[in-house]
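hey so u asked for the seq, here:
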Amino acid sequence: MSEHFDFFSYNTIDFTNKDVYVFSHVDCFDGTVAAYLVEDYAKQDGAKSVQIVYGGYNKERLVLPAVNPVDTIVFIVDYSFNDIVDLVTILEQGITVAWFDHHPASHALYKQLMTLYGTLPDNLILALSDSESGAMLTADYFYGVTVHPSILLATFIDDHDRHIHQYPDTKLVCRLLGMYGLNDTNSVAKVMNDYIRPYYIYQRELNQQQTKEQIRLLNEKMEAKLLDYDLFRKQTLSLLADSVVSVTLGTDTFHACFAPRAYRGELCLLLMERFGVDVAAVLTITSKEVVISLRSQDNGKAREIAMKWGGEGHPNAAGCKVSLMYTFFNHVQ
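ran it, structure tokens below
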């Protein structure tokens, strides 16, 4: 079990006419949203330029082009780089660095840094904690809150992150953006502003209304936005269905797509209608297993397949779990 850690050292940053470099993971929406928060705030605060530097897992480096240290600010957000030398090289140039992370690796790097310096360098701003996600730590620094609207998009379906957001629509959108490679900050911001934020505002306000008349007025006010959201959600489900794969488990082969379990009913029905098949599944990946949610057309195949793999359910709505150790992806085409 990883050792708990909380290290904070805040200073105010003036972004005016500064060149900002943001290091973040390319395939993680917690990091992507953290990078968006930095970019958005820095631009509003007068930054001359903001450049997002994406790296993949296990290939993280902190490498800058030739810069003027006085005019440069570096943010490392939710980015578990593995070589303290990279960070030291940047700090030794006198560049202001802000480092926000929740990965256990950051704790080990922090210990190395303290062994080297004995105390934190004056040009290092720090927020390392396993109690919040990278996006939450970033929002907390800039806005003093951990529930900034951007964080609604912070959790990718397979982020191996303990901070799983409660709204299934968040996972759905993140899954879609990740699958189609749209994990740049502009795409995240557009989806958030055009579709997700109005929907959650509606849900929050709906919970605050006390009378039928208040609810009627709210629905009237939000009608156009909710129609836009409903259309967007249907389009999102349709795009997910486009990513259909063929899965073979034992002697059974069926159509499936990857998505949060909350959409298993709708997506399985969509797959069966689109491809004219009588059984379909939604696959949800966790860090240890693949959850297979099956639906079938009045023939009992869903439960029949699920029970072969230790699952259960109703005749036409059932599920099972397959260990990743089973090399599940060898059975997907």
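DSSP finds nine helices and twelve strands in the chain. Residues 152-168, 178-183, 325-331 have pLDDT under 50 and may be disordered.
lmk if thats what u needed
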